[in-house]
Structure formats: structure tokens, C-alpha cells
Design brief:
By secondary structure, the protein is an alpha+beta fold. It is built from 17 helices and 17 strands. Strands 3-4-5-14-12-11-6-15 form an 8-stranded mixed beta barrel. It has a 4-stranded antiparallel beta sheet with strand order 7-10-8-9, with no helix packed on it. Pathway: Cell wall biogenesis; peptidoglycan biosynthesis.
Length: 612
């Protein structure tokens, strides 16, 4: 269900899964059309067996090696290239040795910056505008105010070292009588470049998300840097001007306040001090020495109601490792309180609920989240859908307020859901499921080679070059062009409806017959699309109607695609730290390891900047 799948299959499986379209109708309109290739050259009869062509000496009917379609990959991040800022000598002042000042040396000092920053610095000084940060005798108060603001970049989730500028030396040198003046010139260019770099970073983020992995898909923001230096020069409070460029939406403001709070605690983890081994897995009837630590934490974390109900068990526990039925009941009650599946199994989710994240972990998650939010629009809009993959939740906002929230299932680690934004356009009722290329190749093809009737028995429709054929009429041992879809019905993988926001990754929201998945704490279980626990409610929200009206559309049994009255932004996001509707930041596990990739990119970027 990904753009990468489409590309990979083109090279490896152009014939095995080169889809052709069903007849054009509402019945056939699915996002999987994006994955389909060109038509086959030969059209078989409806009931004929599709035989292989002679290829590389293979005999007729010999199985070709089973192919495999893999998803996008994570990249080795490369920092943005820099170049020297080039100020022409003509941009200086007088050219006599007796009168040369800092401006005259702008063309000869070396300062590196990214291409966009360098171009703006060059344009400013070539135009003959006044120097900003220095006078003929030294550093100005304006410069010191700017440096103070840049040194506080960590307040906004950035690294102050990325914007540090050394003060110019005032030590004379007999061998170079212009040394002090040159130092001032270099300082002037360097501070201008750092101010521009900060504005760039705080508006759009310091790393390019598209260079992290094939799962990140963003049109990177463009930042209008042209007026920044002149605004900084004219500003009565340059520090306030620099800070004004930080995001100011409610989510970023909540993160910023949370970061300040955590730092004020001086790295203290807070909460319980008992440690539980993170890889602990304890099921009813088993024994584990970690049980004593688990019960000690529950005793401090549990509500008064739970303690009252299970007080005798807590008080009577003697530190033994046996996980007895009465202790299981206690743990189940604790899980229920924390919104977890009350199954008595003590695993990763339960331990996380017991111990929480340390302050250091929370700060790391916040720094990544404050970077990621810069990739998105500064204003999400008054009406939108927000899907947070690590939280396994989807939210509908209207008039800027959360009106609906529900559990979701997202892609598994091997079939990850992308991080991108789009516009909701259509709700399709009683949908067909066009089987993705990756599923046909990776999961169905091995079974079809053993049992060609596999798809017929399941009730799937198979098409060859637009003509319906039996699954048994296809020679699955060799290359052929086929299209597979599942008709609407109770067993349909998409359930009663799907909500479409056409994108290159063929990802959408949909219903599912697998309702039990929503009871799980870890819900990274799909092939990449987003399964909704309450699809009718979400459809009613985006359609601006009632759940009852949605039910009528479904009850008709007809496949029907209906445009939403107004396109709605949808953010298919990935945040391991995110404020809830009350502004309280919540923390989640890094299910795909994307925070780690972002943190590595931070380090690579900072290292490159320190050497430029």
C-alpha cells in the first residue's frame, strides 16, 4: 500500500502484479488504482489458462522464484550542504588603507552558510544597507541582544550550539594591523547567518524529514528570509523579534511549557523509584522475582478505590515470586484503571503504565516532537482530523476543539503507516477492496501456487486485462497481469466504509471486521492503512451529518462513493509526545523507531554546523 511498493514492483514484478483497471464505475474506484500498471499485450479468453511465455530457458509452467516486495527504507541522514558567503569587494566602503573599516573586509573574510541563508546575507550587504551588529569600534548592544536570544534556543527545542557566534578578538597583531577590523567583519557576517539559520529552523525545522526515510512525505516549508536582517536591524528589541518567529500554536505552546517544567525539575525522574526490568513478561500462573517490584509500584500508583478493594491482598503479599489468582485480579483492576486491556498479563504496556517515562526520556521525546510539529502547517485549521500513530488514536476537531476521539489500528513495523498530510475528499460505502500489490505478491502468491482455487473459495474477483476469470484459470507459477479485489460484504477487509484522502501511498481510514484488535494496547497491526474503532462516527463527522444517515447509506448494500461537502485536512502524524485536549502532554512508545532516526539527524546536523 505504498508508493515504494509501486516502484519496486515495476522493476521486479511488472508482469506478476501489473494491475489493469476494472471497468470505470463507482464500484471500481479505489485508491489501489494508483498501484496498477499498464495493460497486458495479449487478451485471453475468459476461461483460458494464462500460460507463461518462454523466458530464460524456463519450461512451460515451471515456477519462477517467489518475488518479494519490501517497503521504504530509512536513510543515512546527510546534513544540508554549505558554501562560503561571497560579498563583492565593491560592496565595501573607501579603499584606502587609512580609512578601511569592517565593511571593506566583508569580501575577504570566510563565513559558511547553507545556500538559502548565504544568498540572503549576500543580497543584504551588496545592497549597501548599514551594518547591523558592529560599529567602527566594536560589537553593538543589538548584537549582544541577538546573541542572548540565540543562546536561549533550547527553550524552543533547538540547540543553542547551532547558533553560537564567537565574539571578535580585540587583540592587535603587529604582523596584521587589520586583524581586529577583519574579526569585526567576520562577526558581522557570522551573526547575520546565524540569525537567519535560527529563523529557518524554528519555522520549518532544522532537518529535512524527507531525508530521514521513505515513510516521511512532506513538502518542506519555504521560509521568507529576505526581510529578516532588515527587520532585526530596525527592531527596538531584536531578541523579542527573534523569539517571535517561534511557532505559537496551542500544541507547540504546551510542549514548550512542558519542556520548561521538566528542565526545572533538574532531571529528577519523579514518581516511583522502584525499577522494573523493561523486558519483563509475566502471565497468570507463572513466577518471576520482578513481581515484588511490580506490586510495590502498584501500591504507590493505585487509586484509593483500588486499594480499598484489594487492600488485604496488598497488605498480605509477602514478596513471593508466584503470580497467584488474587494477585492477577489486583493487576487486572490496575490495568482497567489505566485504560489497558485487563488480562492480567504484565508486559511492556503495563510496565510503562507503572513506571512511566523518565524525565530524560520525556525531554528527548519533546525535542523530537517540537521538531516534527514544525514540519506541519503553523495553523492546523478549525476543522481537521489528526491521527497520532504512536498513540493509536484518531481525533476529529471542529471549530478548533476536539469533538471526537477513537482508537485506531495502524501499520505494523514491517508495513509502517506514513507520516504525511492530505485532504479528506470522499467517503465510500460498502467498498470493494482492491488487494494491494504487496499483499498479492508477499502473502497470496505462495498460497496460490499451492492452491490455484484459493481466491475463488474466498470469494475474491480476479481480472486479467479487464476480463473476469476464475482464480484457477491463472497459471500462478509464472508471470501474468492480474487484478484482485474483494466484493463488499461482511467479510470485506475494509468493512462498511472507507474514508479517502487520495495520496501516493494508497493509505486511507476504514472499518474492519477484526474488531478485537481495538482491545489491544499495542495496535500496530495493519498493512499500513488506518482502521477505525468507530468508523460510522468518523464518517458522520467528516460528512457533516448524523450516524443514522451514515447507517442508511450502509444499509442500502450498494457500493457508493460520496464526496464530503468540504475537503478536510487530515494529518497522519507520528508524535511520541503530544498534548491532549486539556493541554497536558502525554508520552508514547516509539513504535517504529522514528524518534531515534530523528535524533541521529540532529547530531549529524549539529556536527556539520560546528565544522562549517
Amino acid at each position: 500500500m505504498t508508493r515504494y511498493n509501486m516502484i519496486a514492483a515495476t522493476a521486479v514484478l511488472a508482469a506478476v502484479t501489473g494491475f489493469t483497471a476494472f471497468p470505470h464505475s463507482a464500484n471500481a474506484a479505489t485508491l489501489l488504482d494508483l498501484l496498477r500498471g499498464g495493460p497486458a499485450k495479449n487478451k485471453p479468453a475468459a476461461n483460458s489458462v494464462i500460460e507463461p511465455q518462454a523466458n530464460g530457458g524456463l519450461e512451460m509452467g515451471d515456477p519462477e522464484p517467489l518475488p518479494k516486495i519490501t517497503g521504504p527504507r530509512y536513510y543515512t541522514y546527510k546534513a544540508e550542504a554549505t558554501r562560503a558567503i561571497a560579498i563583492p569587494a565593491s560592496a565595501g566602503g573607501a579603499d584606502t588603507a587609512a580609512t578601511r573599516g569592517p565593511r571593506d573586509f566583508l569580501s575577504s573574510v570566510k563565513v559558511n552558510a547553507t545556500a538559502d541563508v548565504a544568498a540572503v546575507v549576500e543580497d543584504y550587504y551588496k545592497s549597501g544597507k548599514p551594518l547591523i551588529w558592529i560599529s567602527e569600534t566594536g560589537v553593538t548592544d543589538q548584537a549582544r541582544a541577538a546573541m542572548t536570544a540565540l543562546a536561549a534556543a533550547d527553550v524552543a527545542g533547538l540547540d543553542p550550539a547551532d547558533y553560537a557566534v564567537a565574539l571578535p578578538s580585540d587583540a592587535s597583531d603587529a604582523a596584521d594591523p587589520d586583524k581586529v577590523t577583519k574579526e569585526l567583519a567576520r562577526f558581522e557576517l557570522a551573526l547575520s547567518a546565524k540569525v537567519l539559520a535560527y529563523v529557518n529552523d524554528t519555522v520549518r525545522g532544522r532537518i529535512d524529514p524527507n531525508k530521514l526515510s521513505g515513510y516521511h512525505d512532506f513538502k518542506r516549508k519555504s521560509v521568507n528570509l529576505a526581510p529578516v536582517l532588515n527587520m532585526a536591524r530596525l527592531s527596538p528589541d531584536v531578541g523579542a523579534y527573534i523569539r517571535s518567529r517561534d511557532p505559537d500554536n496551542a500544541q507547540f505552546t504546551a510542549m514548550k511549557a512542558e519542556l520548561a517544567r521538566l528542565k526545572a525539575e533538574d532531571g529528577q525522574a519523579g514518581g516511583v523509584t522502584v525499577r522494573i526490568a523493561p523486558d519483563t513478561l509475566l502471565k497468570p500462573g507463572q513466577s518471576n522475582p520482578e513481581l515484588a517490584n511490580i506490586l510495590a509500584v502498584i501500591k504507590t500508583q493505585a487509586s484509593d478505590a483500588l486499594k480499598a478493594q484489594h487492600g488485604a491482598v496488598l497488605e498480605g503479599y509477602a514478596g513471593t515470586p508466584e503470580y497467584t489468582p488474587e494477585l492477577v485480579a489486583l493487576v487486572e483492576a490496575f490495568q482497567q484503571e489505566k485504560g489497558l486491556k485487563p488480562d492480567g498479563v504484565i508486559g511492556r504496556a503495563t510496565i510503562r503504565a507503572l513506571t512511566g517515562h523518565s524525565n530524560a526520556e520525556k525531554i528527548e521525546k519533546l525535542l523530537v516532537a517540537m521538531e516534527e510539529i514544525r514540519w506541519l502547517p503553523a495553523d492546523f485549521g478549525q476543522r481537521y482530523v489528526f491521527i497520532n500513530q504512536p498513540a493509536y488514536m484518531a481525533y476529529y476537531y471542529n471549530e478548533g476543539r476536539e469533538q471526537l476521539s477513537m482508537r485506531v489500528v495502524v501499520g505494523s513495523k514491517s508495513n509502517q503507516t506514513y507520516f504525511f498530510q492530505d485532504m479528506i475528499q470522499t467517503v465510500e460505502f460498502n467498498p470493494y477492496w482492491g488487494v494491494p500489490k504487496s499483499i498479492i505478491v508477499n502473502e497470496m502468491l505462495p498460497k496460490l501456487r499451492q492452491d490455484p482455487a484459493y481466491l475463488d473459495r474466498l470469494g475474491y474477483q480476479v481480472s486479467y486485462n479487464g476480463r473476469t476469470v476464475s482464480s484457477t484459470a491463472v497459471n500462478w507459477n509464472t508471470t501474468h497481469s492480474v487484478d484482485v479485489r474483494q466484493p463488499p460484504g461482511g467479510d470485506n477487509a475494509l468493512g462498511e466504509l472507507k474514508i479517502l484522502f487520495p495520496n501516493a501511498h494508497a493509505i486511507y481510514m476504514h472499518d474492519t471486521p477484526s474488531k478485537s484488535f481495538f482491545k489491544r494496547d499495542m495496535r500496530a497491526l495493519s498493512h499500513g492503512c488506518v482502521r477505525l474503532a468507530e468508523p460510522r462516527e468518523m464518517a458522520a463527522a467528516v460528512m457533516g451529518t448524523t450516524v443514522g444517515e451514515i447507517g442508511k447509506q450502509i444499509a442500502s448494500g450498494q457500493n457508493r462513493a460520496v464526496q464530503v461537502p468540504q475537503k478536510i485536512p487530515v494529518y497522519v502524524a507520528y508524535f511520541t509526545a503530544w498534548p491532549n485536549k486539556n493541554g497536558v502532554v502525554e508520552y508514547f512508545d516509539d513504535v517504529y523507531g522514528r524518534d531515534s532516526a530523528t535524533q541521529k539527524a540532529f547530531a549529524i546536523t549539529s556536527d556539520a554546523r560546528s565544522r562549517s
